[in-house]
Amino acid sequence: MRAFTYERAASVEAAAGAAASNPEAKFIAGGTNLLDLMKLEIETPSHLIDVNGLGLDRIEATPEGGLRIGALVRNTDLAAHETIRRDYGVLSRALVAGASGQLRNKATTAGNLMQRTRCPYFYDTNQPCNKRRPGSGCSALGGISRQLGVVGVSDACIATHPSDMAVAMRALDAAVETVKPDGTRRSIGMADFHRLPGDTPHIETELKSGEFITAVVLPPPIGGRHIYRKVRDRASYAFALVSIGAVIQPDGTGRISVGGVAHKPWRLDAADAELPKGAKAASAALLADARTTEQNKFKVDLVERTLGAVILEARG
Amino acid sequence: MPSTNQPEISRRDLLISSAATVAMTGAAPGVAAAQFADRSMHYTSTISLKVNGESRDLDIDNRTTLLDALREHLHLTGTKKGCDHGQCGACTVMVDGRRINSCLTLAVMHDGDEVTTIEGLGQPGNLHPMQAAFVKHDGFQCGYCTPGQICSSVAVLEEIRANIPSHVTGSLTEQATISQAEIRERMSGNICRCGAYSNIVEAIVEAAGARA
Ligand SMILES: Cc1cc2nc3c(=O)[nH]c(=O)nc-3n(C[C@H](O)[C@H](O)[C@H](O)COP(=O)(O)OP(=O)(O)OC[C@H]3O[C@@H](n4cnc5c(N)ncnc54)[C@H](O)[C@@H]3O)c2cc1C
Ligand code: SF4
Ligand code: FES
Ligand code: FES
């Protein structure tokens, strides 16, 4: 690990300002992703800004009837929150399907959104990787790609975003609230927050340099059956091959957001519209533009079958 | 292992340290003093941890994980290093009452926090009920994962009592219950290379009953 200086941020504005004044600085929240990557020198910040203790660990009702989740709320506390369990069950379920009890006690809302891919070549510093070293090439294309993306991919990168939580937040139409170093605030919808890889897979979100996440806002509850179904190589403590976060209404309409297939949670209006017709139609719409490798083409069938199971569960 | 405890002096580090020197000797002593006070120009820190009830002061490199602070600085070697990447649970300790992986957190981030390690749960002759249950049920073979398993399992029972849901909890709106399925799921962050899992679960079930 490279040496770094360390400070505890005194305020949200001070945190954003400190990050903007040093392009090699990074925020640290739970540390469960950043430290992992720093040990491998995949991340090499020269300065860490500790953002714990800024009072962003609360979940509050919004005047619109939704919820504002502070950026530093731990994954365990979010999953266990009474209103989340009752009105936004898909989010609770997605959270407890991720990582382990120990990790969820540390992992934060903002850190979870910002976690980086689990592509094996991103972690292997001996191999080319456009995300880790822009312009060096993509080892996964033509390499081991079983876990990687099948839709929205590019010639530069086929990685997936590993977060379970983000898949549920996309289904719920959540929005990410931020502060920029100049003090301006904005809100970015989950549809736009994560980017597709394109030619710049190292740029993963819409955040600008130093921009700090303060909260994630959930709109008022929409009822329906909330389901999160995750398919993985072992029953617990593993990243998704495919996961589906769904909110399905009694009339069969609803929303479906898919994890494990793209650089961001994958949800399309056209696929939501097909949902009442069944899993085949909806998954065909979701993956109409799929570009698979020999090793990961099984994910196309897996999405359809997982969605079939979700629809059955919603009826049951 | 790419990581090393030797400070590497890179061009960037030299730039930073010369910037710090300029700040300290330059025309703005007030600014330099403030930077000194908030420690933000330093690669090392002085912290205080309350470990197993005892206050311990430490001078550490900022890179020191809580795990290395416990093992290498405080010589509390009960807590084990398996993977050093959050993947095995051998390093599980309790911080302010919650179980975490001590390998994925920095000691400097825990200034003032209360840490409980396996040594703090119980000692020979004065075992914690969970330690006694592990002994009784042979909940280990080589024993390397055991301190992490025991710290984790003590926390698991508290998490169920606190009604924190898990992946196998049936209803999100009802109180979580203690069952084999719940224990297995909640213990999945603790890997046992010897495969002592079935005895570990039996030990936890017994300890849960004893406390209920
Ligand atoms: C073994 C293992 C298994 C895992 N399994 C899963 C899984 O199955 N599913 C899953 O979803 N996740 C999984 N995870 C990942 C885990 O969920 C993430 O590590 C965690 O959510 C990151 O949160 P953190 O607070 O620790 O982030 P940190 O490590 O502190 O930060 C991560 C990134 O976010 C940035 N950041 C933090 N806070 C802010 C902020 N407020 N504003 C702007 N940027 C910010 C940091 O600068 C950093 O770049 C696993 C992790 C491990 C180690
Ligand atoms: S898929 Fe993306 S992350 Fe993986 S090797 Fe290619 S460029 Fe790197
Ligand atoms: S040593 Fe910390 S989880 Fe393996
Ligand atoms: S007892 Fe040997 S690793 Fe668990």
Automatic annotation (TrEMBL), chain A:
PROSITE patterns: FAD_PCMH. One of its GO terms (molecular function) is oxidoreductase activity. Keywords: FAD, Flavoprotein. It holds the Pfam family FAD_binding_5. Residues 1-223 form the FAD-binding PCMH-type domain. This is Xanthine dehydrogenase YagS FAD-binding subunit. It comes from Neorhizobium alkalisoli. The lineage of its organism: Bacteria, Pseudomonadati, Pseudomonadota, Alphaproteobacteria, Hyphomicrobiales.
From TrEMBL, chain B:
Gene3D superfamilies: 3.10.20.30, [2Fe-2S]-binding domain. One of its GO terms (molecular function) is 2 iron, 2 sulfur cluster binding. Keywords: 2Fe-2S, Iron, Iron-sulfur, Metal-binding, Oxidoreductase. One of its GO terms (cellular component) is periplasmic space. SUPFAM superfamilies: 2Fe-2S ferredoxin-like, CO dehydrogenase ISP C-domain like. Residues 45-121 form the 2Fe-2S ferredoxin-type domain. InterPro entries: 2Fe-2S-bd (IPR002888), 2Fe-2S-bd_dom_sf (IPR036884), 2Fe-2S_ferredoxin-like_sf (IPR036010), 2Fe-2S_ferredoxin-type (IPR001041), 2Fe2S_fd_BS (IPR006058), Aldehyde_Oxdr_Iron-Sulfur (IPR052914), Beta-grasp_dom_sf (IPR012675), TAT_signal (IPR006311). Coiled coil: none annotated. Pfam families: Fer2, Fer2_2. The keyword Ribonucleoprotein does not apply. PANTHER family: ALDEHYDE OXIDOREDUCTASE IRON-SULFUR-BINDING SUBUNIT PAOA, OXIDOREDUCTASE, IRON-SULPHUR BINDING SUBUNIT-RELATED-RELATED. NCBIfam families: PRK11433.1. This is Xanthine dehydrogenase YagT iron-sulfur-binding subunit. The lineage of its organism: Bacteria, Pseudomonadati, Pseudomonadota, Alphaproteobacteria, Hyphomicrobiales.
